[in-house]
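Researcher: We're teaching a course module on how sequence relates to structure. For the next exercise, students receive a sequence and then see the predicted structure as tokens, so they can try to spot secondary structure elements on their own. Here is the exercise chain.
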Amino acid sequence: MRTSTLARVGAVITASALALSLGAGPVSAAETSTAAAAAAPSAAPSATSFGTTSNVDAAGVITALRLGSGVITDRATTQFLGNVAGQAPSNNVQTQVTINGRVKGRVILYPGQGNGGVEIPRGWGSGKVQLGPTFFSDGTVDQNRSNVFYARKHVTSKATYPLKIHRRNSKVTFKVYGVKIINPSNGKYQSVKRVKLQRSKGGKWRTVKNIKLNSKGNGSYKITNRTKYRYRLYITRSATQEKFSTLKTGKI
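Model: And here is the predicted structure for the students to work with:
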């Protein structure tokens, strides 16, 4: 007797950053049908002032400059938050931004413990970021550099079920829908081109296939397999793009 089973799984996007969370945890749903989780923007950097309002004397020096990574979305700027402290003759403090070894320009530096930081234009691109030197309104310059952190492109799927699986006896068909990545230059999402199809075996995820996607972020793959597994879509985090993962399916 022929049997037919259909499984669907929704996306969970995880984006880690110091004092900045764009992620959403798993949603409660049946094993074979889960809804997509949405990403929420973070709060803006602190508006706390340098100088006497932040309990330091006015002068031109940076004493703390350590930020966490951020995720580039369709917003015009990307927030990078962390610890920023120092002394300044005024609140007009700007710091130089270097991405992948190339100087991009200067942005305003906001002080704060955990919520200080910068907003970097989306169009400056993704990759390894470092701040400094820092420039003050009286013409003095602090040569200190920040730690290295990352601007990563957001990967997502707006489909309710980015992965659909259809089994008919031993024949299994996987269909991927709308997996896209932000293009920093124009703020639009485009196909991520490839996504890993993984299955869980022995408590570990193993890649079955790197599925090629079309311009809409869609793709498909077919196998013959009588053994049932749990599956997910997965993209590894890198220096330029954020991790993407769907919730695991039930066994199919």
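Model: If you want an answer key for the exercise: Residues 51-152 form a domain with the Immunoglobulin-like fold (CATH 2.60.40). Confidence is low (pLDDT under 50) at residues 1-6, 11-43, 52-58.
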